[in-house]
Design brief:
The complex is a heterodimer of chains A (166) and B (68). Chain A is mainly alpha-helical. Chain A has helices at residues 2-41, 46-78, 85-118, 126-163. The radius of gyration of chain A is 20 Å and the shape is elongated. Chain B has 68 residues and is mainly α. Helix content of chain B is 57%, strand content 9%. In chain B, strands 1-2 form a two-stranded antiparallel sheet. Classes of the chains: A mainly alpha (166), B mainly alpha (68). Chain A binds chain B through residues 161, 164-166, and chain B through 27, 31, 34-35, 40-44, 47.
Chain lengths: 166, 68
């Protein structure tokens, strides 16, 4: 069981590192390249594209922070020190990244919906509904992170109590 | 702590050293020190049993309540 645990952590680390590299690639090449290309083609859509670029970059940054924090927590799992107050620092990093990412996306979604609403030519409920769905989904994720954080705290307290038993 | 662990008294009666006691009970000397100093928060029944067996005494001989 414990060996399996160790191998699982190694596999997960490889995937996390790959995901991190992929996100950096998106952040520095794909996303700016794509959006700047679109800007060149349709300068009149600048008011939609610039916020998308800025928010997209920041969202990717949040995702990278989450990956780094997760990697740190994995190290703590491997050393069997996950049930300590130190792990809360990294968990807080994950929670705050989720919150920041969610707020950014919610702002972008609101802005986009407003633009669609106030531009009769673009008016169509499809995109606002999709954005609203993603915002709801994100809210559930943020709350789930908070529940997991509370569980970790509880487990840390129990572990500390158990370690005091002689 | 209102509960005092009287290991030192029982050890003295039997002229047993702390090191020997720790080894026979299966505790680390550090944990024996924690018990003796009254800094212990909880003791397993299995630990209590091992201590009683080693010292040939009852739990009541080891544990004492002191009003503080």
């Amino acid at each position: 069981m414990f060996r399996f645990h160790g191998q699982l952590i190694i596999v997960l680390r490889v995937f996390l590192a790959s995901l991190f590299a992929f996100l950096v690639l998106l952040q520095v090449l794909s996303l700016p390249g794509d959006i700047l290309h679109d800007l060149g083609n349709s300068p009149d859509a600048a008011h939609l594209l610039w916020p998308m670029l800025v928010v997209g970059e920041l969202e990717l940054l949040c995702a990278e922070v989450v990956i780094v924090c997760t990697a740190k927590l994995l190290t703590m799992v491997r050393r069997d020190s996950i049930f300590s107050d130190a792990s809360l620092t990294w968990v807080n990093g994950i929670v705050w990244s989720f919150v920041a990412g969610w707020l950014l996306f919610a702002c972008l979604a609101t802005y986009r919906t407003a633009v669609i609403y106030f531009t009769p030519r673009l008016r169509d409920p499809g995109i606002p509904i999709l954005l609203f769905g993603i915002v709801l989904f994100g809210a559930v994720l943020v709350l789930l992170m908070l529940v997991l954080r509370a569980l970790l705290r509880q487990a840390t307290i129990l572990r500390t109590d158990m370690e005091a038993v002689i | 702590m209102a509960i005092v662990v009287r290991i030192d008294v029982e050890l003295a009666k039997r002229k047993m050293s702390v090191g020997e006691f720790a080894e026979r009970v299966g505790l680390t000397p550090a944990n024996v020190a924690v018990l003796k100093n009254g800094r212990a928060k909880a003791v397993r029944f299995s630990t209590l049993e091992a201590m009683c067996r080693t010292l040939g005494c009852q739990p009541g001989d080891l544990l004492e309540w002191v009003d503080d």
